Amino acid sequence: MKKRTFRRLGRVLLALTMAVCLTAAELTPALAVTQAEIDKLKNEASELKSQKKNLQKQLDGLAGDKAAVLDRRKKLDDQIETTGAQIRNAEAQITAYEGLIAQTEAELADAEQREAEQYELFCKRVRAMEKRGTVSYWSVLFKADSFTDLLTRMDAVNEVMDADQKVIDDLKALQEEITQKKASLETSKAEEESAKAELVSKKKELDQQRQEAIALVKEIEANEKEYQSTINALAQEEENILAEALRLSKKLAEEQAAQGKPVHSNPGGYIWPVDSRYITSTMGGRSSPGGVGSTNHKGTDIGRVGYTSKIYAAKAGTVIVSQYSNSYGHYVVVSHGAGNTTLYAHMSSRKVSVGQYVNQGDVLGITGSTGHSTGPHLHFEVTENGVRVNPLNHGANPKKGYLTGYTLSGSA
Question: What is the CATH number of domain 228-408?
């Protein structure tokens, strides 16, 4: 009877140890964030740093070269875009570290709980042996009254010794796991703080770069005679862009007609392309604001936007242009039928590609100040029958125009 009890004790201890281990495995959460994902972000950050260093080298080579002023402006926009990517990378790293830290803290708490349970199991084992006076394994063996009894006792002792050792080994493993997780937690927290400091630095750098780009445009406009060829080139580029957009719009309509698809080119039906209703410059002849900008403005400028405002498709159609130009910076053109287009310029980023169909109200990009611009705003153009029209006073009721409810700069 005593032999069977001894063996059962060993088996029970083994079963308890396995149960603790299985419970620990079940409690460990599935990894939501991995170090590999953070390492990938770090590699991307390193590549962006190298890319920006190369851009700075090119900018330094163009400094003071008035003939290459447009190329320099383009490089500045590229630099701004790269810094923006660095900011997004730093934000992604911070988010990843926050997840990893929360995850590690949960795993650490779980490991500490399992350690306490394992230690309690070990203590119970010792107390049980003390009560029976069987703390010494040798005393168990010396009580054998025959060789057969000795073999039986050895089997029982081996089972108990194995169970005891498993409890001890698991306890040591848990203690090592806790030590590693604490070290990992401290490392993650330190790297998160480093990423936060980098984010603050990059945001300041981005602001400085934007101011430098704006200052360059103001320099061009303030020295009109000196930069006359550059100003003429920008004006000509705008006309070339219009001609190319109309050509693509006509070509698209012809292709759709050949495929038996309905081609719509109904005037009107536009919505505001941004949430702001503040007009900083209207279409046509104008007094160049602050000495900056074309005096024959080809579109409508909408202000009181920043570098994060969404730009919406004023009307459903197909994207026929999505690219960068010296005059318009990042810009998009949507065709609404032959000769009917809308253009959205000076974006900080574009969210659509050529050939993409957009519904009215879909996001085309984000407002900015790229190209020939002195601050964040949206330059918006509408063409009907191949001619630019003013959306503020054109339509069935010219007194109202397509876009209503706006405020003109200087009146509010």
Answer: 2.70.70.10
